[in-house]
Design a protein that fits this description.
Layout lengths: L7 H7 L1 H7 L5 H4 L3 H6 L3 H13 L11 H20 L18 H16 L4 H12 L6 H20 L61 H13 L9 H9 L4 H15 L4 H29 L4 H6 L31 H17 L3 E7 L7 E6 H15 L4 H21 L7
Antiparallel strand pairs: 1-2
Helix pairs in contact: 5-6, 5-7, 5-12, 5-13, 6-7, 6-9, 6-13, 7-8, 7-9, 11-16, 12-13, 12-15, 13-15, 13-17, 15-16, 15-17
Length: 435
């Protein structure tokens, strides 16, 4: 296994010059800018990110066999390459369109790139997407520079769509066969869903050399003291209406029980608007973030279906079959959030994605401290406040214990995997041209 661990200090050292080219550090005062001023300064990168979030949140819009992180990575890679072809301060992800005037419209390039990718991926939304493109382009001054931007955006979109045409995402997954050995993943009560994304590790990564590049070591043995500890922790704290979890822990488990990459895209929107990032800066930030997420998902599905570890609800109900004297069975146990995500437990997806997100944001902005609020994906109107990216990362990660769907060991391995993926991306992709 080719396991390369890049420390956070190395990432920060490698990217000092890069960060200077990206943005200036922000202050708490900057982060408290009014929503009205932020909306007036809204750039197209944030707008199209919001649009794609709205699409994937629309029931039935996202194919159940295509992970949405692929769409975000494709759209933001196209936006980045289009804008980068004009700005030219950083290396392209996939393509640098030649002979582009530096006066070409970056906004028009971003709009055209995003629109063309989304129409190709979500043709049912073409009317809405066409209307949004027309509205956004109406804000760009007419002339040759606008036309050049539109052309550049179209070429960048065409390049990423062609590159991902045969990436393995369309592979039909064969029927999944559950094993019956203690410790093996089983369909989970109370709804017993079919496993999801069993073949997603075969999708070509966007940045990683392979899906298994940073595959974690195996989970704790069922007979170990470590396994008994993590088993009993989630058994106590993650059960529905737990008598040991605090009210805030139970709320945390439910608050984060959604598509965690969506939360982090909205956190990035908040940071981008609060710091008034330029279009090139925003394009690079969201490309880094979503390329990391796409490879996170490919990597953690590789690990999940390699180790095939059962979920806590299965483990706790069958606690008398694991040959560990310190794990007692509870045949009626159900998690706080009711249902469990239909894939193996190890490593934890929330931990992987949150670790990647926090590292990208800390590195891009060159600091961790930032005051922001997060709205729940699944609890409308409920917000939680944070003073740093790391604080949100920690809460999102630990929430899976309080939700009753992960062991702590899943989260420890997931956090390392997420850091490894993001560190590799930050060091090797979207670098300044003079580095």
């Amino acid at each position: 296994m080719n396991k390369v661990v890049v420390t956070l200090s190395l990432v920060c050292a490698c990217l000092t010059a890069q960060a200077r080219n990206s943005t200036t550090a922000f202050s708490d005062e900057t982060s408290q800018g009014t929503a009205a001023s932020a909306d007036r300064a809204l750039n197209p990168v944030v707008q199209w990110n919001r649009t794609l979030l709205a699409i994937v949140r629309t029931p039935g819009a996202q194919s159940p066999t295509l992970h949405p992180t692929r769409s975000f990575a494709m759209m933001h890679a196209a936006i980045y390459d289009a804008v980068s072809s004009i700005d030219r301060t950083h290396r392209p992800y996939l393509i640098r369109i030649p002979r582009v005037s530096r006066r070409a419209s970056e906004a028009a390039a971003a709009d055209a790139a995003a629109h063309d990718v989304l129409v190709a991926l979500y043709p049912a939304f073409q009317t809405t997407l066409d209307a949004q493109l027309e509205q956004l382009l109406s804000q760009v001054a007419e002339g040759v520079h606008k036309d050049q931007g539109i052309t550049v955006g179209g070429l960048a979109a065409e390049a990423i769509l062609e590159a991902r045409l045969s990436d393995g995402s369309g592979t039909q997954a064969p029927p999944f066969v559950f094993a019956s050995v203690p410790g093996d993943f089983q369909s989970t009560p109370p709804n017993f869903p079919k496993p999801q994304f069993t073949e997603w590790a075969r999708v070509a990564p966007f940045a990683l050399e392979s899906a298994s590049q940073f595959r974690p070591e195996p989970p704790p043995d069922l007979t170990s003291d470590t396994y008994a500890d993590v088993f009993n922790e989630v058994k106590s704290l993650g059960i529905g209406k737990s008598s040991t979890a605090t009210a805030d822990q139970a709320l945390t488990g439910s608050f984060w029980n959604g598509a965690v990459q969506n939360y982090w895209n909205e956190i990035a929107q908040t940071a981008a608007l609060a710091t008034a990032l330029s279009i090139p800066e925003s394009a690079r930030l969201f490309a880094l973030l979503n390329l990391a997420f796409a490879d996170d998902v490919i990597a953690f599905y590789d690990a999940k279906y390699t180790y095939n570890l059962w979920r806590p609800v299965t483990a706790i109900r069958a606690g008398d079959t694991d040959n560990n004297p310190d794990t007692a069975a509870d045949p009626n146990w159900l998690p706080e959030v009711g249902k469990t995500t239909p894939d193996p437990s190890y490593p934890g997806a929330h931990a992987v994605i949150s670790a990647s997100a926090a590292l990208v944001l800390r590195t891009f902005f060159r600091q961790d401290q930032f005051n922001f609020k997060v709205t729940s994906e699944v609890m409308p109107g409920v917000e939680r406040s944070f003073a740093s990216f790391s604080a949100a990362e920690q809460e999102a990660t630990l929430s899976r214990i309080f939700a009753g769907v992960h062991f702590r060991s899943d989260l420890t391995a997931g956090r390392q995997l997420g850091q490894d993926v993001a560190a590799f991306l930050l060091v090797h992709f979207l670098q300044p041209v003079d580095r």
